[in-house]
Amino acid sequence: MKKRFIIVLLLNVSLSIKAQNVYTLQQCRDLALLNNSQLRSSRLTADIADNTSKVAKTKYLPRVDVLAGYQHFSREISLLSDEQKSVFNNLGTNTFGQLGGKVVDNLTLLAQQGVLSPQMAQQLGQLLSNIATPLTQAGNNIGEKINEAFRTNTRNVYAGGIVVNQPIYMGGAIKASNDMAAIGKQVAENNINLKRQLVLYGVDNAYWLVISLKQKETLAIRYRDLAQKLNEDVKKMIREGVATRADGLKVEVAVNTADMQIARIQSGVSLSKMALCELCGLDLNSEIRLSDEDDASLFPTLPTKTDNCTSINTDSISLEKARPELCLLQNAIDLSKQNTKLIQSLYRPHVLLTAGYSMSNPNLFNGFQNRFTDLWNIGITIQVPVWTWGENKYKLRASKTATSIAQLEMNDVRKKIDLEIEMNKLRLKDANKQLITSHKNMEAAEENLRCANVGFKEGVMTVTEVMAAQTAWQTSRMAIIDAEINIRLAQTALQKALGEL
């Protein structure tokens, strides 16, 4: 039983440790980049673009297609008419039959003229009849064979072959397609960079919002503790008769107000942590802690490149490479130019080398034969557009106009990015000034609170004055927290504007 209790206790401790993971800003960034669905979608899009580029490269290579087919027809092709077939079927009858009849007639005429005796004419006629019958049959058989030889037997047709097409010159269409596919890969990569910067920017803002609320929660608790200490002192003074009930009610109101403020801030912390968990791909109810929650000071320690506004280089070329928005717009311009080349290629000569190997049954290469016979072929196909009613001109005008529009959009976005950079420089500079001023105010507020506490103990300061000093101290400390967070956020925004996030 004791062992079981120890095991359960260890499991609970391990689970609580696991649930109370402490995350740094970089860890939150890594989790967000790993789990963000839009980034995963963009990576899959990049994979599609890579395969599309590979497809475009295959256009340079020859195409090999294998064809095969079978057709059954209800009737076959006939090279002879029905009348011609009938003539050949009766070839012997029409030839030897008619010849035999004429010979018999001539023998009868000769017998009548006395050239031949009737007996001789009858014997010759009988002999000729005996010879004509097999000749007639043989002639008819020959005619039938001739009909059979001319039969095509094309009711069942089998065919197969291999076709090879090799582009020689397609007017620049293949190169333009490959260039467009390569630009498509760049678009996918720039889109990933854009999504990545947006994710990191969102994570940084959510992270520092949590830190800001946690700092304010700590400050609110300290302020509530001061108010409770003052409340206890006022209650003692009321019992001693040196303070009024109204003074006690004022302090109690301040304590209750501080409790409400703490409750509101704690709700904000919970919601902001949920938002951060959603960005990082964690469970919304995860009990996470951030490494900067307990830091007394959040004064930035980021690279000096963003601390010193005047040293930031906003060179046009480097900025266009760093900002994915500008890269995407440049890709749009390049795609429009390649589209113009693609349109131009449609109206240039196309030269195609063709070759093939085929087999068919029946075939006509040696008369009609009911067996497979093959042949090969090779040739060149040239296509030259002659007249298109100005279609080429209109399409080219439209494509060039689209390029001009993309260029104008890029120039406009470039100016807006320059403005964004300058605004974030000023924002960072103002946040640094605000932090310096807030620290000076904090020193004065702490001294004011000390003097108020001493004066209250000496009886020369009222409860209202002490509460005012406490409020001023809380306000000054709150201003420091806001200034420190503003510096962090301004640095992040400036890094994003410069494309360095």
Described by the principal axes of the CA atoms, the overall outline is rod-shaped
Low-confidence stretches: 1-19, 301-313
Order of helices and strands: HEHHEHHHEHHEHHHEEHH
Helical fraction:
over 70%
CATH homologous superfamily descriptor of the largest domain: Outer membrane efflux proteins (OEP)
> What is the strand arrangement across the widest sheet?
2-3-5-6
CATH class of the largest domain: Mainly Alpha
The CATH architecture term of the largest domain is Up-down Bundle
Number of distinct helices: 13
Whole-angstrom Rg: 51 Å
Beta-strand percentage?
A: 5-15%
Major pleated sheet: 4 strands, antiparallel
- Domain module tally: 3
End-to-end span in angstroms?
56 Å
Beta strand count? 6
Q: Which structural class is indicated by helix and strand composition?
A: alpha+beta
Instruction: Look at the structure and give the mean pLDDT.
Output: 82
CATH topology annotation of the largest domain: Outer membrane efflux proteins (OEP)
What's the SSE blueprint?
Layout: H1 2-19, E1 22-23, H2 25-35, H3 37-57, E2 63-72, H4 82-89, H5 91-112, H6 118-149, E3 156-169, H7 173-240, H8 245-280, E4 289-290, H9 304-307, H10 316-322, H11 324-345, E5 350-361, E6 373-383, H12 391-458, H13 463-497
Parallel strand pairs: 1-4
Antiparallel strand pairs: 2-3, 3-5, 5-6
